[in-house]
Amino acid sequence: MTALKHFYETFQPAHYNLYIDVNRATKLISGTSTITGDAKETTVLIHQKFMTIKAVTADGKPVTFSTDNDNEAIHITLPQTGETTLSIDYTAPLTDSMMGIYPSYYELNGEKKQIIGTQFETTFARQAFPSVDEPEAKATFDLAIKFDEQPGETIIANMPEKREENGVHYFDTTVRMSTYLIAFAFGDLQSKTTKTKSGVEVGVFATKAHQPKELDFALDIAKRSIEFYEDFYQTPYPLPHSWQLALPDFSAGAMENWGLVTYREAYLTLDPDNTSLDMKQLVATVIAHELAHQWFGDLVTMKWWDDLWLNESFANMMEYVAVDAIEPDWHIWELFQTSEAPMALNRDATDGVQSVHVQVEDPAEIDSLFDSAIVYAKGARMLVMVRALLGDDALRKGLKAYFATHKYGNATGADLWAALGDASGLDVGAIMNSWLEQPGYPVVTATVNDGQLTLSQDQFFVGDGKEAGHLWQIPLNSNYDAAPEIFKDKTVVLGDYAQLRAASGKPFRVNVGNNSHFIVKYDDTLLTDILKDAASLDAISQLQILQDQRLLAEGRQISYAAVVPLLTQFAASKRAVVNTALYQVAGNLKKFVDPESAEEKQLQAFFNKLSADQVARLGWTAQKGESNDDQLTRPYVLSAALYAQNKDVIADAHKLFATNADKLAELPADTRGFILANEIKHFGNETLFDQLLADYRSTSDASYKNDIRGALTSTPDANLITKLIGKFEDADTIKPQDLRGWFRGVLANEKGEQAAWDWIRNDWQWLDDTVGGDMEFTTYITVITGIFRTPERLAEFKAFFEPKLPTPGMTREITMDIKVITSRVALIEAEKTAVNQAITTAN
Ligand SMILES: [Zn+2]
């Protein structure tokens, strides 16, 4: 591409009059985009993609134009610069790509139906209407929509509808906003609405394939989230309504369109009477995330896509702040510690990873910025560090000023640091830039050298890494006053260890609370001191020891065999956060054993030993009034016992299946997946397989769908695996948005690995054609990388993906993933004997 200048430099829109006519039957969009703005040059650039431009006028007079598909542009020649009204007539195809304006398909009582919805982030508004499709090009919008309307259909958009005339729906003028946040949808919808304390109308919309009660949970969370943010930000919600819409076809998790947030059905609707607590927590955090964006992202928007992290990191932190406030009993920060923290620490340890802040211009590269482990999880950890340093009072004060200064406009990271710095008196920018601009993170090594307690920092790598001399400004959060608040240097000597230890009376620790983005390597003296009373540590500290030790083992800084006895040490914990971390770490041992080997038998015996007491304590059935921790722990210990081939647990699951065979959806949601998978694995046949696949197609309950997917992909039957893979490209059974989970399931099944790997290599072109434009496309490669662990697979992976290295948006992923598999293969080779010995000893 040549002309990579921002189009906003040539034309600055102030107001759009959009007329869009969508015909579902002919799959054609036709419309007129009338844009009033300031022409900065006599040749202006307006975005379009996949469009046929019929005519262009400027101030009512025809002008010369040319379409430039390489640059997704229309070049328009004007008689002069200055205030101009452009009017562009166009047509565009209505495609199934889940980008731009697109149909979502579903069945209602056996009848095939569709809803039309939109997805404009990042650069897809230009597929719906000609525009300056850049976040900085904020304008107001008058939207008018016509469609092949049927009786009873509903249409919604960012703003309320003001009138309907001759089948055209006219909406109120929007506030000043970015194109990527425009949204509308229509179809045969049901809804429930309520009002916040401040009078904002809140609604949840979904297809009528859902039971009405499936809308209730989201409505309650959305209402209370908006009330929370209005208070926390000290800034009113700026629109008259906040609609939440579940779309049957949806590529990402959810999208924060201003006033009309769209969601994957799985992240909005749920059966309030039978959904597991962890699923409810997940849905609540997704809703709170999108609603955090209504201010941070929508009201104040990043100036350009390089500051995407500003939107996402912030919303990712705020979703936990909000849910913690509205559902304090959930202890939702524990979910942050078991999900976001390890995700960020794993990904960010591979050399070649992107920094949180990345320069970017090419639209194909913009989508690859959405590295969820970095931009979302690591970025959120950075902001959690900031929050811990500032405290909530200064954070809120700084945010209020930030919104007041930049509302309806754009901002950069520096603007946020300036506002938070003013509110707190800290040089936030200086601290944060070391985290924002440098990829990776440090391991802080704590040692006693000649009696002196000493800290040093080095970049931590899993696999080969080039030490680039990076230093971070590390908020240490030590329990010893001798440690600095911010550790900036390569090393620091804290003083005489014996004296410090005696004075404090407790083992030395840093990163207490696990809120800073680094890991700690204690020497033997210090670690032994911590572990000798590990049972008395708080749950987060226990999780942190497990996570950090596993990472150190992955990075070959300690032996993996040293991690094994830690699992036994923490196995009796009644805290879900510890058990989650414990079974995450235990699951990592599976890579060291071959299927059906003597070593696998030993590992299964170890899993049985870890889980036996907890299985006996918790059983399959929830007790009335049991704690959240017990509810969340049960699935982990049952899953471990099933992996262990525990005969009693298998028999109990089989019994539960038999007594509920005619109402499988009604099995308790937190154990249903295990019961179904157990049945498929040990007692399955084609009839059951077909029955579950039919249920998958017909149910509207996303949790039940997930459970069925988990069960069917675990079949050991080669014929059924073939049959299943045959459904991968049948969108009536498996929607493209859900395919990755199915693919992963079969690939992770040792009996299905070869077939799944063959499928993706043979049908890569089909996959590219179907979901290739999608920002999640590269995660198919990540999924494969998560599973491969042998030299043979590594060679096959390279043979297949190395030729794709030059593909825009894929280079980094392929390069990193080769490193990840290479280091795993080497780790297994080096540590296998020691790990299996440690497992045998632990038994
Ligand atoms: Zn977001």
UniProtKB/TrEMBL annotation:
InterPro entries: Aminopeptidase_N-like_N (IPR045357), Aminopeptidase_N-like_N_sf (IPR042097), ERAP1-like_C_dom (IPR024571), M1_APN-typ (IPR034016), Peptidase_M1 (IPR001930), Peptidase_M1_aminopeptidases (IPR050344), Peptidase_M1_dom (IPR014782), Peptidase_M4/M1_CTD_sf (IPR027268). Residues 217-435 form the Peptidase M1 membrane alanine aminopeptidase domain. It comes from Secundilactobacillus collinoides (Lactobacillus collinoides). One of its GO terms (molecular function) is peptide binding. One of its GO terms (biological process) is proteolysis. One of its GO terms (cellular component) is membrane. This is Aminopeptidase. The lineage of its organism: Bacteria, Bacillati, Bacillota, Bacilli, Lactobacillales. Its EC number is 3.4.11.-. It is an enzyme of class 3 (hydrolase). The record marks 376 as: Transition state stabilizer. Residues 510-819 form the ERAP1-like C-terminal domain. Its cofactor is Zn(2+). It catalyses: Release of an N-terminal amino acid, Xaa-|-Yaa- from a peptide, amide or arylamide. Xaa is preferably Ala, but may be most amino acids including Pro (slow action). When a terminal hydrophobic residue is followed by a prolyl residue, the two may be released as an intact Xaa-Pro dipeptide.
